[in-house]
Amino acid sequence: MSTAALIGLVRNRGQQLQRALLTSCAVLGSKCQISTNDCRASRFDLDGSGCPATWDSFGIWDNRLDEPILLPPSIKYGKLIPKVSLSNVGCATHIGKRKENEDRFDYGQLTEEVLYFAIFDGHGGVAAADFCNKYMRKYIREFLSEERNMELVLIKAFLEIDKAYMRHAHLSADATLLNTGSTATVALLRDGIELVVASVGDSRALLCRKGKAEKLTIDHTPERKDEKERIKKCGGFIAWNSLGQPHVNGRLAMTRSIGDLDLKKCGVIAEPETKRVQLHHTSDSFLVLTTDGINFMVNSQEICDFVNQCHDPTEAAHIITEQAMQYGAEDNSTAIVVPFGAWGKYKNSEINFSFSRGFGSSGRWA
After folding, report:
1. What is the largest CA-CA distance in the chain?
2. Contacts of 94 (CB under 8 A, 6+ apart)
3. pLDDT digits (tens, 9 = 90+) for 162-206
4. Sheet of strand 90-94, all strands in order from the earlier edge strand to the far edge
5. Phi, psi torsion values for 338, nearest 5 degrees
6. What Å distances lie between residue 137 and 157, 196, 261, 325, CA to CA?
């Protein structure tokens, strides 16, 4: 888009877009036809009041990752939106004390507008998690070409991949595939601002907003009244193990999953619950996807606090998995950390640390 056309859009779209253009002068450099003096005056005195403007006055991010501005989405939404670079995404996985790591994760760019982040936690083997990791992108991309609503896209993709896994398992000579399943938590980000999350099972997604954890998923467990009622209505039952944990038909600790074909007739479904969020890059620091090896040992706010101490998302992902291990996690643990505009802005110098939990989970006393 030419500078002249951009200026025309700004004049027609109002003051917010004017601020976006003026602030982007630094990015446009010598191509920007607006004088430096005009930019400087607008930057430090937005409303002519004589009061100096702060970074937050512009509605922009903390800028600690020095991300470029996404101009088309910024014009579309009327506020500056930073680019979420896949090169800055952090991820880590740890086998724990298991013989095999059944966790899988993936992220990438599906279309020019949409980014993809996913985490899968297999049980009964890796077949279902591997299948999801291999084909989930394919189904989402297909439905994105037909449907604009990303919540519907994810629901259709989850149901379709479950059907595809069923066909795959019935054609396979390996009968164990019928008893294998996986959680799935998938996030789609459009234009750097429209976030949609879908999930089945007990893997989780959380958003750190103003330093506080906001859960974007709810675990699908037999303890939930609505989930329990569906299981019983379909002819299944809930049994508790020796640790007091409820399981569907005494076997599965979750009520929704991809796979677990032998329990589909008992009410275990693959339809995800979804959540839509519009990001505010002045206050949203990061998105975290985690598997239950982390979730059962570290609560959501602790995850936020740990990440907020880290220099970059890669370090943060490793810190999360390592902290779960220090607290006594034996299961596979996997984390994906996606930084947003306020990365590093809400860093807290104090972390609440439980000495008794750390002491009790050490190798000597576990």
Report:
1. 76
2. 101, 293, 321, 322, 324, 325, 332, 333, 334
3. 999 999 999 988 888 999 999 999 999 999 999 999 999 999 999
4. 90-94, 333-339, 284-290, 204-209, 212-215
5. -115, 110
6. 9, 15, 22, 30
Judge whether residue 320 has pLDDT over 80. yes
Q: Which two tokens stand for residue 77?
A: 């939404």
Q: 103 forms bridges with which residues in the sheet?
A: 121
Give the tokens for residue 346: 């809400």
Query: Are the C-beta atoms of 205 and 121 separated by less than 8 Å?
Result: no
Name, in order, each residue with C-beta under 8 angstroms of 9's C-beta and a sequence gap of 6 or more: 17, 75
The Cα 143–Cα 147 span in angstroms is 6
Q: What is the 3-state secondary structure (H, E, C) of 2-14?
A: CHHHHHHHHHHHC
| Cβ partners under 8 Å of residue 168, min gap 6 | 131, 177
Q: Would you call 81 exposed, middle or buried from its count of C-beta atoms within 10 A (0-12, 13-18, 19+)?
A: buried
Q: Where are the alpha helices (DSSP H) in 149-298?
A: 150-171, 225-233, 292-295
Structure tokens, 352: 């609440």
Higher pLDDT, 253 or 346: 253
